[in-house]
Recover the amino acids of this structure.
């Protein structure tokens, strides 16, 4: 019944079912399993309850050959993973004096005395090996309760779990023949094209089996993930690279970067290559564009600064926007966005000036200027000024602000690319 | 077999099994189910694979009476949640012209043409109702494929899912008699006090059983969550409020707000009450303080704007910082932070001026000015200017920036509170 060599992550903790904490352990283990090339088809979250935990174990044994547990190893009564597993496989618990001594020593080093409740952390099912926990009190275990089934347990504290995983579990799994190959992925990032339009351009590539290509959308951008399975990382990369080149050439300038690239980092690289600088004039984004650009370490090489002209008087006083245009056209208009971009470029002595003025909502919209209406301005090194009008729709305020600042960066990116041609 | 009225969250997406994204949707739904008082014992994550998804459905039907799916509603071939569910329950898919028209209209508003692949998003199993998606293209569904089993589907994009959950799913579930009792929580937020110090001040309250009080720390602040279980929300609130008052009086001005309050929104409320305005001068935060203040809708009532003086020349030209102080003391110094605060207050005609100048790293630190050193300036309505030096340590760049802007807002908050006394 079980799929060959699949591992399953079972996270134990009522705090997860109450949404009190995010399940970052499951994400960490998922990434690690992918890197090791260990197939991983299911994750389960279950509370601190013996019967439900045992039901999850019964299901896991049917479909996976390695069950990886996080949580429920602490000293309190609601920590019951070890006992529930021993009971499920009808195996007695044995006290390990070496665990007890280790916990006592750890308490002593912090000038504290071990409490009686910690004693239960020294119990493991007969036949299980200790999975040492160098940084916390509770060790985990490595156990084969029956042939062809491996159980690993970890505490729920992410830092402890990660050290135990890397120092003991990974070498153990490799030695047992798990994860001969690797799954390696790269994510290509696109701006200015929708998911369905992108999918149509790469319809052939989406059918590929190794590497696979899968589209994702979120935060206004579309991504294509290329994943290859191969004996080594180098061989996986060799499968990915021709596919990446194929996709990049099919999609042109809608492709902007990969993996940890952002529009801010890509624009920064292009500005450095061109030895040019940029300054920003922001109204509805309130400084978000500057914050995004300076999220990139080293951005002082090309970012001069900006003016947050939230109030109209600031637009006039600090950017030289004409009062008559504010009065007649309104702050959210072509002439004002152009004067903001030109003004900030000139007054901050930058090569490029960018501006954003719009209605981020939820209030402040009118029939002619609804929520989501944004004007983006761009002043070029030769003094030419343009503006572009976008209608992002009545979305969440923060999302409209995010789309605005990404879109104006994308405009600059395309201009910088065109100048390179 | 199924536990009475339990709901189960089934998250669909290979990107989750590869660890590419964190399952924030499961946390959101867990919190919401807890608030509604709907029991929730299991969560499952499964990839974009019809057979495994159907196996997860089979297991879910056995143990839960409401299955809540996120993910797999997009237009691409690996989006298969709807089709897999229809197939599992042997129900034909029906095309809904009203969904198609809605998707077409949404594309048109963005000046784009719907692609043929979006057509599949208009298919729902016979008998299923549309769960409208106001902000994205793919709707979800509400379906009772057999008596006593409810299925809800949502797209994986968190912002879309959350709107759909709140606007349609919650009223539907309430109307169907789900969630008889409630668990109601309030989160109290603190700035300027550590978790252990706070815990010592409220040691008695932490022992309470209904409501419970639990401390959490993260993003530089400490929170206390007060949770009460009761037949109705009103009764739960009646349990919470005396506890809240007790804690607030024990903790004084370190308590700054509750639930969705932020330092930015609390400062905004105090400024509005005082009929005062603020302007910001930002160096290492690059606009982040302005962006945070204007995250609050209606902030134009008290936020005038700011200057992002990333380059030193901008500090001189736009804020009047003295070149000799920049040369002799450096940009990260008391006099520069004071001149930035005074300059932005004066030139933007605000009552208060705030400034931030520091070394956010990871590069740029020296022995005398290490990464994490930040000067915060504050210019008051009476013209008095102060600066404060913080050493946040060699942390992550984004965290140093975040601590900087929260700390300067907290300084202003305490000054506004003191002025009220």
């Amino acid at each position: 019944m079980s799929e060959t060599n699949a591992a399953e992550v079972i996270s134990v903790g009522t705090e997860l079912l109450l949404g009190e904490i995010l399940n970052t352990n499951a994400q960490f283990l998922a990434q690690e399993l992918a890197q090791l090339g260990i197939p991983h088809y299911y994750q389960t979250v279950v509370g601190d309850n013996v019967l439900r935990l045992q039901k999850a174990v019964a299901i896991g044994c049917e479909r996976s050959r390695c069950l990886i547990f996080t949580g429920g190893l602490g000293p309190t009564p609601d920590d019951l993973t070890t006992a529930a597993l021993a009971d499920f496989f009808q195996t007695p618990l044995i006290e390990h004096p070496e665990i007890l001594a280790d916990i006592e020593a750890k308490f002593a080093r912090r000038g504290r005395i071990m409490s009686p409740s910690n004693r239960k952390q020294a119990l493991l099912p007969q036949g299980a090996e200790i999975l040492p926990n160098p940084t916390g009190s509770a060790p985990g275990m490595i156990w084969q309760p029956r042939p062809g089934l491996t159980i690993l347990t970890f505490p729920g504290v992410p830092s402890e779990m990660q050290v135990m995983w890397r120092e003991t579990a990974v070498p153990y799994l490799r030695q047992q023949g798990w994860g001969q190959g690797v799954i390696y992925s790269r994510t290509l990032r696109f701006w200015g094209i929708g998911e369905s339009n992108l999918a149509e351009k790469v319809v052939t590539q989406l059918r590929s089996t190794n590497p696979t290509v899968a589209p994702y959308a979120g935060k206004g951008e579309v991504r294509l993930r290329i994943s290859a399975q191969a004996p080594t990382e180098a061989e996986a990369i060799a499968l990915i690279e021709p596919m990446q080149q194929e996709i990049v050439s099919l999609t042109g300038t809608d492709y902007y970067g990969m993996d940890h690239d952002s529009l801010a980092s890509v624009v920064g690289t292009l500005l450095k290559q061109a030895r040019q600088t940029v300054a920003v004039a922001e109204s509805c984004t309130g400084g978000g564009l500057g914050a995004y650009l300076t999220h990139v370490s080293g951005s002082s090489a090309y970012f001069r600064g900006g003016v947050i002209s939230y109030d109209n008087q600031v637009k006039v006083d600090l950017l030289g926007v004409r009062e008559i245009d504010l009065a007649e056209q309104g702050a959210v208009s072509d002439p004002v966005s152009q004067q903001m971009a030109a003004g900030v470029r000139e007054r901050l002595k930058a090569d490029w000036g960018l501006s954003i003025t719009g209605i981020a909502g939820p209030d402040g919209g009118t029939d002619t200027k609804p929520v989501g209406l944004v004007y983006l301005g761009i002043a070029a090194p030769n003094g030419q000024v343009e503006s572009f009008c976008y209608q992002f729709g009545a979305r969440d305020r923060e999302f409209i602000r995010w789309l605005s600042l990404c879109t104006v960066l994308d405009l600059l990116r395309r201009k910088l690319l065109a100048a390179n041609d």
Q: What stands out?
A: The mean pLDDT of chain B is 93. The radius of gyration of chain B is 26 Å. Chain B has three domains: 7-175, 182-258, 263-420. Chain B touches chain A through 98 residues (CB under 8 Å).
